[in-house]
Specification:
432 residues; alpha/beta; Rossmann fold; 2 domains; 5-stranded parallel beta sheet; 12 strands
């Protein structure tokens, strides 16, 4: 554990446990009390689930917003927890930011919407652990995207103001969808439906995905949305519907609006070579990691959907594990199938193997697994980031390793030792 110790605050329960107990108050989410069960994994899925394609062990109906709860549960069993903050390489603040935000998203009273976030900031500011580095060694984890925490404190608008407080801006903020234009938030993959409890479970699933018979060239695990004409999603559905080499997730797989039976979805994903990943409600989709779990090569249409999001968890060489088709090309009626058909079979095999190798890296596994999982990867990067600040402080200088603005995302792509940013192939897609 040398250099890997993490100190975890024992926060007052109003910041986490009470939010779970009050799950029925969360706006528009009648199933949240079910979702927070099993340490955030949700209800276990037995027998492979509807469709029969999930693992017999370690499968759960996991909600996309539960990362904060899952991360906290994982940290309670972390092998390198420090009993004293002075011995720690980083400090974890287990505030369930996502549950708090969801509980008040519809509340017009901004003071109420911001109350618990403001309370946390005040609580932290009184702590000697926080004052030691001004919060630069602290990190928080959210099950919701950055966009839910960027409202200016003095202005109306969406979400709460947690990430705009100066104190929090020194900390590292882990989220399921980061903003490419803000400097201290970093994306961690959405939790999938498979949370293995042994190395054998991981290896067995990877071997199964290598053997999977993939009769489809491509697929899309999603459906149309109202007023969705002219979008990439609509184009995908239209093109797929005309192809004998593509399939969509059928209506029989829908268990509630916007939710598909995990087993049915997995059966589709593991039967295709390529899985379409257009933008969801934001830039990202939980299905990205469902498709990777299925050994299906993801196809992205905007760089912020993955390449500029999960820079800690996915290879920098995006061509090694995915296909990029610019949304503008699809809008001009480029044939998705034609693009995919031109990829040599040997390259497809290499890409799929890379995806399968990433399965453990992109999910927060259950305890008992020695494969590096999404939590391990995130902790390594947080500790690395804190260590750079410590070195700078020891040298009498302040490290500026993140900035806000149009080029903020470029700093996340710098390798160790690099300090300057320049033109990038994705510049054309990232006008503010």
């Amino acid at each position: 554990c040398a250099g890997r110790y993490v100190y975890m605050y024992d926060l007052p329960p109003r910041f986490n446990a009470d939010l779970v107990r009050e799950c029925r108050r969360i706006s528009g989410s009648p199933n949240v009390c079910k979702d927070v069960a099993t340490d955030g994994f949700g209800p276990p899925i037995t027998g492979g689930g509807e469709g029969g394609s999930l693992p017999e062990r370690g499968a759960y109906d996991t909600d996309q917003y539960m990362l904060g709860v899952i991360f906290h549960a994982r940290m309670r069993h972390h092998e390198c927890l420090a009993s004293e903050p002075a011995a720690a390489a980083a400090v974890y603040v287990p505030f369930y930011t996502g549950l708090d935000a969801a509980m008040h998203l519809d509340n017009a009273d901004l003071a109420v919407r911001d109350a618990l976030s403001r309370d946390l900031v005040d609580w932290l500011a009184r702590r000697p652990e926080w004052r030691a580095m001004g919060g630069r060694d602290h990190f928080l984890v959210s099950g919701r995207g950055t966009w839910d925490f960027l409202r200016r404190p003095d202005a109306d608008g969406w979400g709460n103001a947690l990430m705009t407080y100066p104190a929090i801006r020194n900390a590292t903020f882990l989220t399921t969808e980061a903003s490419p234009w803000h400097g201290h938030d970093f994306a961690v993959p959405f939790p999938s439906h498979f949370h293995p409890s042994s190395d054998a479970d991981v290896a067995g699933w990877q071997d199964r995905m290598r053997r999977a018979q993939r009769g489809l060239l491509w697929c899309f695990a999603g459906g149309p949305r109202g007023g969705d004409t002219g979008t990439v999603r609509a184009q995908i559905i239209e093109q797929c519907g005309r192809s004998s080499r593509c399939s969509l997730l059928g209506k029989s797989a829908v268990t509630k609006p916007g939710h598909y039976a995990p087993g049915h979805a997995m059966r589709l994903l593991e039967s295709a070579q390529f899985c379409m990943q257009p933008r969801g409600d934001g830039y990202t989709r939980k299905s990205t990691f469902g498709s990777m779990l299925a050994g299906c090569i993801p196809v992205f249409f905007h760089p912020v959907s993955a390449y500029l999001q999960y820079t800690w968890h996915l290879p920098r060489d995006y061509r090694s594990y995915s296909v990029f088709i610019p949304a503008g090309d699809v809008g001009r009626n480029a044939s998705i199938e034609e693009v995919l058909s031109k990829i040599p079979s040997e390259k497809v095999t290499r890409m799929r193997e890379q995806v399968i190798r990433l399965i453990s890296d992109v999910d927060p596994a259950a305890k008992g697994v020695t494969f590096k999982d999404a939590v391990d990867v995130a902790l390594e990067r947080v500790i690395h980031r804190v260590a750079k600040h410590r070195r700078a402080a020891a040298e009498g200088r302040e490290l500026v390793d993140s900035v806000d603005g149009g080029d903020s995302w470029k700093y996340d792509l710098l390798q160790d030792g690099q300090e300057k940013i320049g033109p990038h192939e994705f510049d054309q897609y990232l006008y503010m």
